[in-house]
Amino acid sequence: MIPLHRFDLLGLGILAGFAVCGPSAQAFVLLERDDQPVNSVEEAIQTAARWGNEPGSLAEGVRGLGDGLEFSIASDFCERLVPQFRDPSPPDCDQVITSLKVALNQWAADHPVLNFVDVSTSVTAALPPANHPEPWQGFGAEIDFFVLNGQEYPAVSEVGGHNSHWSIPQVPRLTNGQRAESGNTITSADIILNAETCFYFYAQQPIPECNHFQSLVLHEVGHALGLGHPDELPERNLDTDLSPATPIAINCEQPGLGLQASETLDPKAAMNGYAGRPAPLLKLTEDDRSGLNFLYPPCTPARKNIPLWVWIVSLLVGVILIVGSLVFVLFQGLQKLKSR
Fold first, then answer.
1. What gap in Å lies between CA 212 and CA 209, rounded to an integer?
2. Is the dihedral of CA 170, 171, 172, 173 positive or negative?
3. pTM for this structure?
4. Do 202 and 87 meet the contact criterion of CB atoms below 8 Å apart?
5. pLDDT at position 243, please?
6. Strands 116-118 and 69-73
7. Are strands 260-261 and 238-239 parallel, antiparallel or unpaired?
8. Secondary structure of residue 179 in the 3-state scheme
């Protein structure tokens, strides 16, 4: 049996804050195992869990980024969620699903590899059966969305949303085409929204005691990708220069290069776990994107260096072929002249 790691993250009760559009950034934090917290930022980097960039799809028995992160929305998602909206004019199911996809695409925007694919019509969302010996193998799609109450899923009883995902001790392939030096590979993630709490849909009309739907989904998807709460683990926050006024410079070829502990944080980051602020969060901050770029370096796979002798031989072969072709054509022309 393959050893497995489970990550359980409580979602926000009430999410808030508008993203900073400037280039400043404070720090980000990675998910830690709930059964074995790490002891240093170095260990956090070495044991980071992320989706692997292996080619293939669920239909081919492959879980990972290869053909996009495939997600499935439970068939009763809208039926159970829409009645919980407290807007004067509640959204319909189509609006809710569109908003969910907008939140997903915030994380995938401008990334050369990361994208999300809706497979709800072909793959049924499913939680791992209780006490299943191998929950890491994945049930349903790669990311599944549910609306459940506290009796059905106790972990969601006192929060707006909850994320639970599984990883295996397999070193993942990165989005830059390289194999990570260490770490774990995520195989499955479940996002559960609380069927007994209230939500609001329209960002322009916040309802302070309720959860802004798109903000909550944005936050939970960050957990599904491997990010944690920077406000709850400031001693594990990562930055490259300790300056809150500059971007976190992630090296795309060596994403862990230069990262160090930094207790500064952006109070408006989507991944903060505190509740109580009424304004919705509609965009990611630089901190959120820096964490994403560490886990999923946004550069195309580097070309392998080709030895000089290979270039020389290739050039000579090309020259020989061209000269040979010219000689052959010239010879054929002379033969025709002689035959006349």
1. 10
2. negative
3. 0.81
4. yes
5. 74
6. parallel
7. antiparallel
8. strand
Residue 318 backbone class (left: φ over 0; alpha: ψ -120 to 50; beta: rest): alpha
Structure tokens at 95: 């609006």
Residue 278 has pLDDT above 80, yes or no: no
- Is it the case that residue 340 has pLDDT exceeding 80? no
Give the whole-angstrom CA distance, residue 191 versus residue 7.
12
Q: Which residue has the tokens 């492959």?
A: 62
Beta bridge partners of residue 7, listed in sequence order: 165
Which amino acid appears at position 42 of this protein? E
Residues 82/127, Cβ–Cβ less than 8 Å: no
DSSP-H helix ranges across the chain: 41-46, 77-81, 93-108, 213-225, 286-295, 308-339
Cα atoms in the Cβ-side hemisphere of radius 13 Å centred on 264: 16
Residue 290 CA to residue 157 CA, distance in Å, equals: 31
**What region, left, alpha or beta, does residue 289 occupy, with left being phi > 0 and alpha being psi -120 to 50 degrees?**
alpha
Q: Which stretches of the chain are assigned E, i.e. beta strand?
A: 5-10, 49-50, 69-73, 116-118, 143-148, 161-168, 184-194, 199-200, 211-212, 238-239, 260-261
Read off the tokens for 285.
């901050």
Which of helix, strand or coil describes residue 79? helix
Of 126, 120, 8, the residue nearest 70 (C-alpha): 120
Neighbours of 138 (CB within 10 A): 19
The mean per-residue pLDDT over the stretch 288-315 comes to: 74
The larger pLDDT score, comparing residue 214 to residue 29, is at 214
Q: Name the DSSP letter for residue 227.
A: B
CA distance 291 to 49: 12
Position 103 scores a pLDDT of: 96
Cα(84)–Cα(91) distance, integer angstroms:
10
- How many Cα atoms within 13 Å fall on the side-chain side of residue 52? 24
